[in-house]
Amino acid sequence: MPRGRRFRFRKHSAHTPSKHQDYLLSLHNTRMSQFLPHATYAEDQRYPYAILTGHVLYRGFATGALVGALAPFPIMLFRPLKYPLPLAVLRSAGMGTVVGTGVLALALAGRMYGREEIEWRDRSWRLLANKGQVEVDTWSGVGTVMGALVARGKGWRGRLGGAGLGNLVGVGGYLGWRYGLYGGKFNKGKWEEDAV
């Protein structure tokens, strides 16, 4: 298969996998579907609206946390902060998670408005078929929970900020583990790399 292309083996397709490929795909799907069902074919993907919407909102949550956490630093150049810097960063990140989630919710609505259900299924299928994306979600999910626990007692903005910053720490840990320790390689066979 040509490198750099993505294949979704669909029913009645000329690219129907062989028995060996089908076995590899079943193993691959088992690993990808730790928490969500990942169908063999994109048109059979279950919960496409929930999967895609959750993914987009979660990315907005993390992006908002990053932007919010950076916001107090330029403000410091013009006036004193109302809170000590660590708490100001935490609260600002918390507000950023709300704004980022809302902005990407609107962006998703605009992007997918009027789209057919198969397009939702295809996009959600691709997300679950992407091993790197699933690993990022796993690491960031753990970081989100840990961050929220660490920031308990800081109010709702502080708790959301802790969750958002924990998300970013999880992503950073994943990048160091996958790309620093393993050089970005998944130790997969050529067929699996092309199929994902």
UniProtKB/TrEMBL annotation:
Membrane-spanning intervals of the chain: 56-77, 89-113
Keywords (A to Z) from UniProt: Membrane, Transmembrane, Transmembrane helix
Pfam families per record: DUF1757
Keyword check for Membrane: yes
Naturally occurring in which organism (per UniProt): Pseudogymnoascus verrucosus
Record protein name field: Uncharacterized protein
